[in-house]
Give the backbone structure.
Amino acid sequence: MNKDMTQGDPRKILWSFCLPMFGSIVFQQLYNIADSFVAGRFIGEYALAAVGNSYNITLIFIAFAFGCNIGCSVTVSQLFGAKNFRDMKTSVYTSFAASGILCAVLMLLGLLSGDTLLILMKTQPEIMADSVLYLKIYIWGLPFLFFYNIATGIFSALGDSKTPFLFLAFSSGANIFVDILFVKVLQMKIAGVAWATFLCQGVSCILSLAIVCIRLSKINPGERAPLFSWKLLGKIAVIAVPSILQQSFISVGNMMIQGCINHFGVSVAAGYSAAVKLNNLVITSFTTIGNGISNFAAQNLGAKKHERIGQGFYAGLKLVWFLCIPFCILYFGFGRYLLLLFLEESSSSALTAGVQFLRILSPFYFVVSAKLAADGILRGISAMRQFMAATFTDLILRVVLSFALSEWFQSATGIWCSWPVGWTTAMLLSVFFYRKKYQELTVR
């Protein structure tokens, strides 16, 4: 159901809109968590490390899909808020066409260079074969990843966050079942983990696209909408390209950090692989709520209701801080028990590394969530230079400090400490940029 976010109480609108988005991303992250769970518990520590190594490369592909999502979503939101339904439908068609071409190029590059990237990450020889196999199967499923993200971006732009939630709740539950079936019953090992994700993402993608087509057919723009527009592609690219660059550089930075982690052995890499999945569940959830804030800001920018943008920021900030509380308690106090979902009790070195990672990072979720809320506003009002400046500051600090502090501590502890420094600095920048841009909007 489409929803106009330019009317009503911003707090109620954002909370009712963002909470299903939060639920959706939790279920989406269950894909990755299920892969790690099944690999670690039913195959072994080496399989868990292999999934973790491949995961850092898959994040590059996810970065492109996410960029296409947010570029389409913000543009459609602005046009929907302005009631320009003709251009809105054309922007959807244009997004699908451009994303399809981009996906094909990335599939070709991934299949040709995946092995090289794993070598550059200093992947240990004993997990190389499994890492390559998992990665290649994942790459064949990229069309599902891309078109699913475009579909969810359209749902969000139209104010509907419940439909993607229902799809993901079903498909992520099915993924866990299929994972266990392929690995435990059919003995497909690491290939079973990858094929389970491939099949379940495919189902989500096809169902989402079908509903999007039905939803768009009910919107009457008054005249036929063109199937492609270079002008609208440029508008989408203004949002999408910086988001892609941001996420891609973060992924490259994570690969560099992974190489540093691999230096400390397979056990530390396995512990990090498990812990970072739990951490990414939080960060991706907050990023998704930031996307909801972007949609809210974009619709109100299109409707020229600038004062509501500031109200949306504070409503979104309260929401992410409310969600921080249980995550901080769980990860800081009970991280060891959560990691035992992926690791055996006998994997003491891996457990120690994972617990330490979670205890250092979890108190700073309040900091990074404030950054992501501010980033949501910056994307929604197309302030992409400021958004990228804050994000790249975080990335550069984390990569540089990971290498420097790991040498100083002579352990992976130094790597874990780089996260809070990067998050805090970037948060201060993002909030500063948000306040400055909001003042400029409200004085016009």
User: Anything to note?
Assistant: The chain has a mean pLDDT of 81. The CA atoms of residues 138 and 360 lie 31 Å apart.
